[in-house]
Design goal:
single chain, 419 residues, mainly alpha, 18 helices, globular
């Protein structure tokens, strides 16, 4: 008698021959890239201040990051469409190698304008995480996607957790803090080398010739029920997650200013706030990946959205850096499953041959959120304070959650193959 479990495993091995191999390599590559990116990223406000910006620092940082992520927002769907037509591995290499090379140029920027200009070049290649996710979801059995994506993201989270700690030590030891980008670029280039040498894929090409259809492809995807709402929730979560990293750093500086903290205290608490989020998500991601596969991404998405609201409420009243660190850790532990749930739902609902584009548009909206968040904080902060900005993000996520659970919307079921 045939063992159905063995038959399913054999089918997965034939249809997805490289998924285990890729899952051993991509987390390590993401670790190196996450380390490189977050080694310097939380310290961008300190670097800009070191280039001579002493007044309206929130506004300067907001404009710089807005331009960076607008470039990423505009170009990422183009990269996604290329991936659908020519393969996903080349897009992972484009992101890791391109960002690493561009980061090596940052220390040569001697003014805030040149600093922002090189940022634009990094933004052109930005997107190693969505590129890797697109490769994984196209080359992994559907019943393993939640765990595979969460494990790959965990690699990035390890790097994200280590990055601020290493960056805090280096930032306190060197005169020009944007020299950190030399180390950042080296780490990302090493991650790209791992992918080039060891990652394999079964190419699944979209039909027809490639054309740069930014609006047309988005229109096709938005015609599919629920995809537009998934993009909205991806945008809102990114506002609260990566989009607020520099805003949290600025908030730490404001809290320490009231306590007359010195430069060493600033570097320590800025790093601690970033590490709290990274470590908590690192712990939670593998667990949430299994939960997504077990109970379905729709329920996980709703819980994570609610948790992001609850864990951001303390930001409206806390008054010490330690309390802020605890709030960020709580956010990471409870809301970490949201990106995995969104990617799983996009994989389930995307039209055939458009899975990479579906993910790339979600990433584009996330990039837009990452730029819009510090820009909006830069406008609101000087007038009403950063607490008003945090209150706005809470209200917006509440609206997104209400739309997700509007009456009559069926709950998405776990993604799995039809037998």
């Amino acid at each position: 008698m045939t063992d159905p479990t063995a038959t399913a495993a054999d089918l997965d091995s034939r249809q997805y021959p490289f998924w285990r191999r890729n899952l051993r390599v991509l987390p390590g590559a993401n670790l190196l890239c996450g380390l490189g990116f977050f080694l310097s990223w939380p310290f961008v406000p300190l670097m800009v201040r070191g280039l001579g910006v002493q007044e309206n620092l929130e506004t300067w940082v907001g404009y710089m990051l807005l331009v960076f992520y607008l470039v990423s927002f505009a170009i990422n769907p183009i990269w996604g469409s290329i991936a659908d037509h020519y393969g996903r591995k080349v897009m992972v290499l484009r992101a890791m190698m391109g960002m690493g090379s561009a980061m090596m140029l940052v220390p040569f920027a001697s003014t805030p304008i040149w600093f922002a200009s090189v940022f634009m070049l990094i933004g052109l290649f930005n997107g190693f995480t969505p590129a890797g996710v697109a490769l994984l979801v196209a080359n992994t059995p559907p019943t393993r996607i939640g765990r595979a994506v969460s494990l790959a993201q965990t690699g990035g989270m390890v790097g994200q957790a280590m990055g601020p700690a290493v960056g805090a030590m280096l930032a306190a030891a060197i005169d020009r803090q944007h020299w950190l980008f030399w180390i950042s670029g080296s780490c990302m280039l090493c991650g790209g080398a791992l992918v080039a040498l060891f990652v394999r894929e079964v190419k699944q090409m979209a039909p027809g010739p490639w054309r740069p259809r930014w609006i047309g492809s988005l229109r096709d995807l938005l015609a599919v029920p629920r995809i537009g709402l998934l993009y909205l929730l991806a945008f809102l979560f990114s506002v609260m997650w990566n989009g607020s990293i520099t805003n949290i750093s600025l908030f730490v500086l404001q809290l320490l200013k009231a306590q007359r903290g010195d430069a060493e205290a600033e570097a320590f608490w800025v790093g601690a706030a970033a590490m709290a989020l990274a470590f908590s998500m690192l712990v939670a991601l593998p667990v949430w990946g299994r939960v997504v596969d077990r109970i379905g991404p729709g329920r996980v998405l709703a819980f994570a959205a609610a948790a992001s609201i609850v864990t951001h409420l303390p930001l409206l009243v806390l008054d010490t850096p330690l309390q802020l660190v605890i709030a960020r850790a709580a956010f990471g532990l409870t809301a970490a499953g949201m990106p995995t749930a969104i990617f799983a739902l996009l994989r389930a609902h995307a039209p055939p041959g458009m899975d990479a584009r579906a993910i790339s548009y979600a990433s584009a909206f996330q990039f837009f959120a990452m730029g819009l968040a510090p820009f909006t904080a830069g406008l609101i902060g000087p007038l009403l304070g950063l607490r008003a900005y945090f209150a706005l993000t809470i209200v917006l996520m509440l609206g997104g959650l209400m739309l997700w659970w509007r009456p009559g919307r069926p709950v998405a079921k776990p993604v799995g193959p039809t037998r």
